[in-house]
Design goal:
About 45% of the residues lie in helices and about 25% in strands. With about 110 residues, the protein is α+β, with helices and mostly antiparallel strands. A hairpin with a 2-residue loop joins strand 3 and strand 4.
Length: about 110
């Protein structure tokens, strides 16, 4: 599984309490283009506490997309717009997938 940022030093119980209060696991999208080739990728997983916003965490990925994502036509434009909309909407919520993966026997 990918790295999970934001749960350092937290117990499983503390994570569960945060999720019960509205905490969630999210990823942010970013796009970059090299000449005519465009690539859409996702960030590591971020744990967002119930009282925390996502704007500061999404800004590096949004800025990367904004400055180097547009150049591949047509996918660079499409991927960049998708990335910006997703990031400024709070990221892509993958809480259920993370919880399911954590419950799987290793």
């Amino acid at each position: 599984m990918a790295n999970i940022n934001g749960i350092e030093g937290m117990s499983v119980e503390e994570v569960n309490q945060e999720i019960a209060k509205g905490g969630r696991f999210v990823i942010f999208l970013y796009c970059f283009s090299i000449f005519i080739m465009s690539f859409k990728r996702s960030s590591d997983i971020y744990f967002i506490r119930a009282d925390e916003g996502t704007l500061t965490k999404s800004l590096p990925f949004s800025a990367l997309s904004f400055f180097v994502g547009w150049w591949g036509i047509p996918w660079g434009i499409i991927y960049t717009i998708q990335s910006l909309i997703t990031n400024f909407s709070g990221g892509q919520d993958i809480t259920q997938q993370v919880i399911s993966a954590l419950r799987q026997p290793q």
